[in-house]
């Protein structure tokens, strides 16, 4: 009977875990809806802003903006966008893996010289690199408690100021780009210096752009570009954080759904083991009773 009690306790424990994972799945599904709406509403604006900036800057000889200066990347900053909590499958592990590939492959020389810095947006990424003695210059895990354009812009302005002063020559952001609830695409994007659109794409569509795009610009193209560049950089980082936020909830919902299914399969297996053990125990008791009765009748 001790074995039966142990199996019953395991069934109770797994059932409790299943209720928790099911509740977490429902919470993530509700949060995913809001996060998905936010990123889907921002993407058209961000893409159009980028297109306008590319169209206008294509007809200007050069920009005087300090954010377009392409220097030798001696000092590099990587913005790691992770989550504050776990239980989201490989969501955080994949961000860290992609960041490590950048650090130890693309920027291995800068890392060896101590010229590589990290900003953590999300507790998991910040904890990972701070505990391993990387040069983590800031932690912005609190952004997700009240995620909005203004709070992310504060981070972007700090990065832009550091880039302008020459403390960083290149800034990249690593995040999960949201595709759907089950698919997140790991992305590493350069946000500073702000480079024009791909030259091949520009050359291919240059005639088409000049023919179809006709903007009325005041006061001047140069002034518009100078105004658009900081906003485009802020929008780029804000979009990355929104993408990551939606991806986190999608990954957690998928992980909790799978955990709930696995708990159900385990409960079925445990109940089968329980019934088999119970049947064996009953059979043993009956055999003992029959054997005892036979012994008494023979006596």
Automatic annotation (TrEMBL):
GO terms for biological process: proton motive force-driven plasma membrane ATP synthesis. InterPro entries: ATP_synth_F1_ATPase_gsu, ATP_synth_F1_gsu, ATP_synth_F1_gsu_CS. It comes from the Bacteria. Keywords: ATP synthesis, Cell membrane, CF(1), Hydrogen ion transport, Ion transport, Membrane, Transport. PANTHER family: ATP SYNTHASE GAMMA CHAIN (PTHR11693), ATP SYNTHASE SUBUNIT GAMMA, MITOCHONDRIAL (PTHR11693:SF22). Belongs to the ATPase gamma chain family. This is ATP synthase gamma chain. It comes from Sphingobacterium multivorum. The lineage of its organism: Bacteria, Pseudomonadati, Bacteroidota, Sphingobacteriia, Sphingobacteriales.
């Amino acid at each position: 009977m001790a074995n039966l009690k142990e199996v019953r306790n395991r069934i109770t424990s797994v059932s409790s875990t299943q209720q928790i994972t099911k509740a977490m799945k429902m919470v993530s599904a509700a949060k995913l809806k809001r996060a998905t709406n936010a990123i889907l509403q921002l993407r058209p604006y961000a893409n159009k802003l980028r297109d306008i900036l590319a169209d206008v800057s294509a007809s200007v000889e050069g920009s005087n903006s300090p954010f377009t200066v392409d220097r030798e990347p001696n000092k590099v900053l990587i913005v790691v966008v992770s989550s504050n909590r776990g239980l989201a499958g490989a969501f955080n592990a994949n961000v860290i893996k992609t960041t490590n590939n950048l650090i130890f492959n693309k920027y291995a020389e800068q890392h060896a010289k101590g010229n590589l810095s990290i900003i953590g947006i999300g507790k998991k990424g910040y904890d990972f690199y701070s505990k391993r003695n990387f040069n983590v210059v800031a932690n912005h895990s609190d952004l997700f408690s009240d995620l909005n354009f203004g709070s992310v812009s504060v981070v972007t302005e700090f990065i832009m100021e550091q880039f302008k002063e020459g403390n960083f020559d290149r800034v990249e952001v690593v995040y999960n780009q949201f595709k759907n609830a089950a698919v997140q695409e790991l992305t590493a994007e350069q946000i500073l210096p702000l480079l024009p659109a791909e030259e091949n794409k520009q050359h291919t569509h240059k005639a088409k752009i000049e023919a179809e795009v006709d903007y009325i610009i005041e006061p001047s193209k140069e002034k518009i570009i100078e105004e658009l560049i900081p906003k485009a950089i802020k929008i780029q980082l804000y979009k990355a954080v929104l993408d990551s936020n939606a991806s986190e909830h999608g990954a957690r919902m998928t992980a909790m759904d799978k955990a709930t299914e696995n708990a159900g399969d385990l409960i079925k297996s445990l109940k089968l083991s329980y019934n088999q053990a119970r049947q064996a125990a009953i059979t043993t008791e009956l055999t003992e009773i029959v054997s005892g009765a036979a012994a008494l009748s023979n006596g």
